[in-house]
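re: ur question from yesterday

yeah so i grabbed the chain u mentioned. its 249 aa long if i counted rite. heres the sequnce exactly as i have it in my notes:
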Amino acid sequence: MEVAAYLTEKAHSVSVVELEETPFRRFLGERVGRALMKMFENNRVKFYMQTEVSELRAQEGKLKEVVLKSSKVVRADVCVVGIGDRALSQSLPSLSLRIFFSAAKLGEARRSSPLCEGSPESKGRQCRGGGGSCRAFTLLGPAGRVAAQNMLAQEAEICTVPYLWTAMFGKSLRYAGYGEGFDDVIIQGDLEELKFVAFYTKGDEVIAVASMNYDPIVSKVAEVLASGRAIRKREVETGDMSWLTGKGS
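ran it thru and got these structure tokens back, copy pasting raw so excuse formatting
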């Protein structure tokens, strides 16, 4: 999406093809996703949702059209494809290689394999909220350090809070925590004005937070999560921010 935002200043038109109904829905939720989608539409970005590319048509060696599974044909000079990533371990076929960091004991990976490496998709645990797979480059430093400690028989665990940020159309979006499986989103501020903070909860606990033009709330939440204290859903529902000063349970 950052690429689409950047290209609006370079191209005559920009189109985004997306499998989901709303961009960022799995990551930021339906309401926040729709607010960001509207921001893009206001900046001349066209969306083709719940479909995908089925064919690229060229003429004289140059891209001319993109055909969607919906049969829609979109004229295009450039197609940027987001294909994701995966770890490559084919060069070490004889090793029992684990390319993730265990949420339990990294020492187990060290003992079971002569080599233990980490990938950008590090399976580590936050200081709160359990474990999971998170592609956040801010995890690479802590993950690499912990991996090295375990290679040296200094058993250690990852205890960090994923934190990421980006900017689109001059708006700053920040995110902290691990929101996989959130079951509710509590929003404070104004989505229409793109000045808001969204708390992602699972059960009674806040597991992640996102904000736009609402600094420094995300950094403060990250500090609370890193300290190991829980932020309860009821605390953010009331708008009471006392937990930021150390009153979280």
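noticed a couple things. The first strand starts at residue 14 and ends at 18. also Helices lie at 2-7, 25-28, 30-41, 106-112, 140-151, 217-226, 233-237.
anyway ttyl
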